[in-house]
Design brief:
Helices cover 35% and strands 18% of the residues. It is an alpha/beta fold and 109 residues long. Strands 3-2-1-4 form a four-stranded parallel sheet, sandwiched between helices. The mean pLDDT is 87. The protein binds nicotinamide-adenine-dinucleotide. The site of nicotinamide-adenine-dinucleotide has 23 residues, from helix 1 and strand 2.
């Protein structure tokens, strides 16, 4: 089983990734490092079944590929905090947009 964690280099996502890997899951992470850090997933890089992509979830074709290759998605990518939530891209991170992007990418395939 493979899980995709958006925002996987963040606080919750990186801990979830470690927990899933230790439970025998394969894990893919997509994170644009806007507030997350490679330090959070550095210790996971050599774990079998772990892969990561430094990119925004707004990259629809890439997101479609990642979603296709997994069994479950944990959508944790977020602009967390008042300052981050006030940025222009925060509104792009709604769950509905994630799935609309996936559907758009597939309807163009
Ligand atoms: N930490 C908590 O106590 C807590 C409690 C309740 C709910 N939550 C929710 O859980 C989620 C994750 O919280 P967290 O504390 O891990 O936050 P976090 O800021 O540590 O993690 C969010 C991650 O999303 C990434 N990200 C932001 N925009 C992105 C984009 N466009 N594409 C790809 N990645 C992007 C950031 O780089 C970061 O690594 C949020 O929705 C938050 O509201 C957190």
């Amino acid at each position: 089983m493979r899980a995709l964690i958006t925002g996987g280099a963040g606080f919750i996502g990186s801990h979830l990734a470690g927990k899933l890997l230790s439970s025998g899951w394969e894990v893919s992470v997509i994170d644009d490092l806007s507030t997350g850090s490679m330090k959070n997933i550095h210790h996971l890089k050599r774990e079998p079944g772990f892969q990561y992509v430094i990119e925004s979830v707004m990259n629809r074709p890439l997101l479609a590929e990642l979603v296709d290759d997994c069994d479950i998605v944990f959508h944790l990518a977020a602009a967390v905090g008042v300052r981050a939530a006030a940025c222009p891209t925060a509104a792009e991170l709604r769950v509905g947009d994630l799935w609309r992007g996936w559907l758009d990418a597939h309807s163009n395939a």
